[in-house]
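cron nightly-structures :: item 1 of 1
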Amino acid sequence: MASSTLAISEANPILAAPPSLTDTEPQPRKPKISSHLNRWSMARTIKSGRKLDRPDHRMPTVEVKHPVHPTEKEPPLSSPSVTINREEEGKWIYMVSDGTGWTAEHSVSAALGQFEYCFVDRGCIVNTRLFSGINDVERLIEIIKQAAKEGAMLVYTLADRSMAKSARQACELWGVPFTDILSPITEAISSHLGVSPSGLPRGAPGRSFPLSEEYFQRIEAIEFTIKLDDGALPQNLHKADIILVGVSRTGKTPLSIYLSQNGHKVANVPIVMGVDLPKTLFEVDQEKVFGLTINPSVLHSIRRERAKGLGFGDEERSNYSEMDHVRRELDFANRIFVQNPTWPVIEVTEKAIEETAAIVLRLYQDRKNKCSVPIISSATRIVKLS
């Protein structure tokens, strides 16, 4: 270990000394907590019906109560005498990026999806912190020191090879489990293309992104989608790439906005009992129309919460949030779907917007490219009424 430490120290002097709890160097700045990932333990615990504990997950504050004599040797971090037990607060995952951190955050989120059984059945608690824009070694080492103190795992996407190497060396030196997400795929693509990567993160000086035609198409698509929200301007439905149809609170608007960010012009049309659908809906290309449906009980719950959010009491609530009305409205929508068998009907219950969007885009591309074999996984649940 001594020779290994010496080699690392010569390559990077910052790694020469292991961290200690009495380290007098400035503490890391307060990191950003990823609410997108921390929702896992909370949401799954609530779903399981257990009481939700809310422990304090703040970073521990290290205070030096007594001055340390210069000749005193501080124990290494791996020593049992300074090991911090965080089992009661759950496991920590640190995500480090020299860019926005989007790749690291979504990769960890996808991986955590494989452990839902642990959140529900065993009450596992997983906490995450995102450190974005980390572009100097000193800051990187501070984060890894803190990860070692908390017993955290480190996941990083560092485009700069020297930064990625420093992260790996520091983690190995201080016993921090780590995963480098970006380097393996970057090296594989580099080998495949026969060229070297730039090593620059997004937004770095020297890496410019000109405003391309694709960029302006996305902006135009977003503006179009906002204008044609909730059945507005039905005379312009023929200009839409995708048209979503469904009863209220099936997620038409957020799904439309999400799809528009990929450059698709999306319109959405609500189905309301007693209100005729616009004639232009049946005059456009029917292969770009998609129906959305949802479980009655789930829709009932969503609408009740919506009514509460609007400040309506039990006496003031209209049929909008009543179960009988919800069932009748869904039956009415199903009859419309039956009369229009060209429209695929997608079940959105318990699906994230990203999942529903993926289904819509796959079907859209299949139809656009006239694929004889749909590129839809057998695990995907699509309900088509006929």
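cron nightly-structures :: done
The mean pLDDT is 79.
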